[in-house]
Amino acid sequence: MKKRTFIEVKPGPGMREIDDLPVLLKRCMDAGFPLTAISRATKLPESELQEYLNGNLPLDFSRTEYLNIFLILLLHEKPVSDTYYRGLMDELTRVFDIPNETIARYAGVSVDELNAFENSDKREQIERCIAHLFVTFIRDPRFTCENGPWVITGCGESEEKEKNQ
Length: 165
Hints:
The protein is mainly alpha-helical and 165 residues long. It has nine helices and two strands.
């Protein structure tokens, strides 16, 4: 059995509390997010997250890079600022190549109204549509009906298909 080496990292001068991975992980747990949920979202085993929670961090920080980003987003990027939904919309365009025209049509507004949604009387409707598009496009196929941990026999299959078997 290969022995894993861990180093303990404590916030030093110039390091903010939000940069401390064990503190972020603990704050998420204190907020009610179970390790299971964090594990599924970050694709890191629960046992490894428990090690991080205890302050035992790996030498290879690339292993925890996404976890750190995920925890910071979860705790500090809440949808109360104008930049949150603007950022989601920008990522829909940048990552998925969805034109603003398509996003506007989906939200039921003009492109001009979409581009100035922060001042629109339809702001909440537009924000909900942006959030729904973003969540739909980043959905992890591991958690679909067919592949998810909560698979039910026959889930996603038509009754006709079940009768024919």
